[in-house]
Sequence to fold (226 residues):
Amino acid sequence: AQSVAQPEDQVNVAEGNPLTVKCTYSVSGNPYLFWYVQYPNRGLQFLLKYITGDNLVKGSYGFEAEFNKSQTSFHLKKPSALVSDSALYFCAVRDENTGNQFYFGTGTSLTVIP
Amino acid sequence: GAGVSQSPSNKVTEKGKDVELRCDPISGHTALYWYRQSLGQGLEFLIYFQGNSAPDKSGLPSDRFSAERTGGSVSTLTIQRTQQEDSAVYLCASSLAPGEQYFGPGTRLTVT
Fold:
């Protein structure tokens, strides 16, 4: 069955330090992978995606993510965290074998400490 | 171009009443999705429409929930005989395969 796991409900990081938000997935076919961010009282905003090609993808606000097929992971990273990065982050996957259905993780709350 | 819009932005209703939530997707997007999000929680898939195909209703929590999409564009999510546990933010998204979803701002439903 298709699924996404975000093993950390909460991640705290000091401002200026690198941040990582973890995501692993399970699909039967090739995955299409996405990260979204949700600021308080706002809708979800698209950050970046992996469809095909280079395993390292760069997205909005200085975020990047690396597709690792052997580890079935797509961790979100940023070299230097900002207080304004504090938000709820969701990983999502589409399976090429199951049409347009998206599967979302449960979300990770990131707090960047000044 | 305009993004995904949803109306109303807030809805307060009494238990037992019916409500209708509306979603206007991005023009040309063939797929439309409804999700429910409880306070600070993850996304609960409800239903999705893909072109003229039969919708995937596998996420609807009960037969009080229904949705339709007219003319491949606007969608309405209807909740009949609302219950307090229906209180949540209802999010709509659209996409053009195989790309990302674009989300609307959501409708906050409060059942009193």
Summary: The beta strands of chain B are 5-7, 10-13, 19-24, 31-37, 43-50, 65-69, 75-79, 88-95, 101-103, 107-111. The radius of gyration of chain B is 13 Å. The CA atoms of residues 49 and 55 of chain B lie 5 Å apart.
